[in-house]
Fold this sequence. Notes:
By secondary structure, this protein is an alpha+beta fold. 21% of the residues lie in helices and 30% in strands. The chain contains one helix and three strands. It has one helix at residues 28-40; strands spanning 7-13, 19-21, 44-51. Strand 1 (7-13) and strand 2 (19-21) form a beta hairpin. The mean pLDDT is 90.
Amino acid sequence: MTSASRRYGLTWADPDGAAQASAGVFDKPAATRRRRALKAAGCTRVKVVKVHPGELPQPVT
């Protein structure tokens, strides 16, 4: 039996409006914690997105 791990990345806009994306992948609980930290830092449009192995999320424009 195999288990497929789900991987998540984040996209957001810095407080100055610059689009950003995470350079690493997270499991769901870690991605949720990171989302909360980004929002607390004043970032906007923070989203947790699913990513496939070998891929990274693209910044939202």
